Amino acid sequence: MEKAFTFFLLTLLLLHCVMASSAMTHTNATSDQLALISLKSQIISDPFHFLDESWSPTNSVCHWIGVTCDYRHQRVRSLNLSNMALTGRIPRNFGNLTFLVSLDLGRNNFEGNLPQDMARLHRLKFLDLSFNNFRGEVPSWFGFLLQLQLLNLGNNSFTGSISSTLSNISSLETLILEFNFIEGQIPKDIGNLKKLRELNLRGNNLIGSIPMSLSNASRLETLDITSNLLQGNIPEGIGNLHNMNLLSIQHNQLTGSIPFTIFNISRIEVIAFTTNSLSGNLPNDLCNGVPILKGLYLTKNKLHGHMPISLSNCSELQMLSLSENEFDGPIHSEIGRLSNLRSLYLGNNRFTGIIPQELGDLVNLVNLGMEVNQITGSVPLSIFNISSLQILGLWRNNLEGSLPREIGNLTKIQALYLDENIFTGEIPREISNLVELEEFTIAYNRFSGPLDMEMFNISGLRVISLSNNSLSGSLPPNIGSILPNIEFLYLRYLANLVGTIPHSISNCSKLTILELSHNKLTGLIPNSLGYLNHLQYLNLLENNLTSDSSLSFLTSLTNCRNLTYLVLSSNPLNGMLPVSSGNLSTALTKFYASSCKIKGRIPNEVGNLSNLLELDLSENHLVGSIPTSIHNLRNLQRLYLTSNKLTGFIGDNLCKLQHLGAIYLGQNQLSGFLPNCLGNVTSLREIHLGSNKLISNIPASLGNLKDLMVLDLSSNNMVGSLPSEIGNLKVVTHIDLSMNQFSNGIPREIGGLQDLVHLSLRHNKLQGSLPDSMSNMVGLEFLDLSHNNISGTIPMSLEKLQNLKYFNVSVNKLYGEIPSRGPFKNLSSQFFIYNEALCGSSRFGVPPCPISSKHRSNRTKVLVLFLFLGIALVFVPITFVFLWVRRKPDEFEGDLSLKQWVSCSLPAAVMDVADANLVPLTDNHLKKKLDCVATILKVALDCCVESPARRTGMKDVVRMLQKIKIQLLDY
């Protein structure tokens, strides 16, 4: 009985445990369902209705799409919603999925931060959130997911730094953080992840050096830290990672040499260090330790030395890129043994010799590129025996000779790049055998002979570039059938391309770029160009093309809605711009039609071209005013309307173009004022308004143009003073204000323009002296101040302007010594003619100065002394006047005072006043010296005029005495 009772109690206890367990399972399964329903509620876009149809509370969560449950507990173990184009966020209670082992939300549009609750997913081993829009800092709580084996956050918008807590995840095998915005350094203890096989930090903003501890991650197979800002050396210990398969540290700022130990990693297949600053050489036995190497990328470094002979031992090599380094020596013939090589780049080095004939042994070569090399000589025929060759790139070398007919053997070639060499002779007709050819470029060579377009009757041809050769001929009338798939056609600068543009060109329906500039084409521009719906670039510059009077071809081009670049300049179009010009593509950014003999007005509809960056209608016969609609061209950067017959005011419309960098309105008949608001267009770099009829002064607001480099207001009728704000134009290099009516002095602030190269102020009414501050204009090369009223002396400090080549101060009122040192050594006399009293070296055509240049150091003392003497000469007579007022009246004639007597004695009876001992009667220059004395006495009388307002100022007194000094010392 007792045993039965005990058994009954145990049964009840077991039943209770089972029921309790069942209740717990139900509760936890419900929490999983609630977490997933919460996730669904945060998804705002499910274009394929994956969740709408499957995730229903009426179904067991374990049957929902993307959900896998644990069989025993019926808990969500795996959630895979990858590549479903879902948009939304992860909810806070997502951490309730505590049985989750694998989570894959990759390739969707999830956004926002990762919730802190996800730190509760302690069973998580696989986490892939790649290719979404997650943001915020990389969470440090990842360090608590200690069972994590794969963490992929690539291609998101994560910021911040890599938390050192990630180094706690000892089970981590794959860490991918590529293409985010992560900053800071790679954690120094990253090497503690002993099980790590793949580390991908590509495309971030990481700084600092590569951690030495990485050499401890002995299982590492892939290390990709390309496209960061890493500096320093490549750690020597990287060579100890014997399981390494791919090593890519491209596009960083690494320095130092490549550790030779890397070339002992026998399992490595790819070594990539492109675009760094690595130096040193490569080991001669490079390939002996890397037998399965397939790719070696070393482009754009500073490596030097010879090409390793052992390269031929890399029998699996498919890609070898040594271009843009400093390698020298020969290209070893053994390279021809690389039978699996697909790409060879040896460009921009210092290799010597010609391409070895053994290169023809590369029977499986797919891509051969030797651009920008120092290789000379002709192309070896063996290259043209490589029957599997698909891309041959030999551009920018010094290859010469003719292109052999054997080129026709490359029947699988898809791209042939021979640009920028010295090839001569005719283009071989065997080109027509290259039936798979898509791109053919031979520009910038010396090919000659007839241009036979029939040879390009290859249906798949997309690109032809024959520019800058000596080819002659014409475009075939059936060009549309010869090149049905052509996209880019470059035929500029040919020696004798004549004839017309065929109407059949409209059949080249895929044409995107048509370059026919600098040729001898004639005839009408065909309206059929309007059928080229994909046309983006049309350049007809410098031909002899014409049009009807309404330029109807422009109307046809309005159908080309992708047109962004249109050049018609230097063709005799002889017509008027149609109103339909405003209907050209809104994508149009550059429109050039200068020197086309276009007449009439600029249509107001031009303002519809809202994306226009540059408009050039210069050197035509345009009349009328600048259209007011021009203010709609809000993106306009350069406006060329020079050399037309435009009239009216400039107006304020230009001031609304806040991206405007250059205005060319010279050689027109524009009148009125220079807009004051022009100073608000702070993007301006150049202002060309010369040869118009402007009448205003220079607005002080132009001083706001801190980036202005050119200011040309010459040949107008502008007036007023030069504003002191001109000194704010610190980067200006060219100022031309000549042929105006500017007056008053040159502002001393102009001396702050140290970058100014050209300054012309000639033919104005400027007064005052040359500011000494001009000696600070160290960049000045050209200075023309001729035909003004400038007075005073030429500052000796201008001798410091070592770059000065042209200095013209003729036709002014200057006096004193002409500087003779520095740039003045090479100036001629014509630059100083027609001034008041200049003196100096005889080569200037002026009289010598009284003070020899040998005693230049004493000039200042002598000048000071003379000034004291001069002042004495003025005030002694004045004192003499007042001392003798008590003289007896009968000592003067009539009622004359002393001042009146001196005044009456001038200038004829100077000897009655002056002491005879000062000017002996036997003096050879008596008359001239008496004139000087008379002038001194005149100055004295002017200084003692009774009215203070009429008295001569002391500055003028000093100036006059300086002139008298020069005259006296000459006799």
UniProtKB/TrEMBL annotation:
Residues 31-70 form the Leucine-rich repeat-containing N-terminal plant-type domain. The keyword Signal applies. Residues 307-445, 701-813 form the Disease resistance R13L4/SHOC-2-like LRR domain. The keyword 4Fe-4S does not apply. It holds the Pfam family LRRNT_2. Residues 1-20 form the signal peptide. Keywords: Leucine-rich repeat, Membrane, Repeat, Signal, Transmembrane, Transmembrane helix. The chain crosses the membrane at residues 862-885. It comes from the Eukaryota. This is Leucine-rich repeat-containing N-terminal plant-type domain-containing protein. It comes from Datura stramonium.
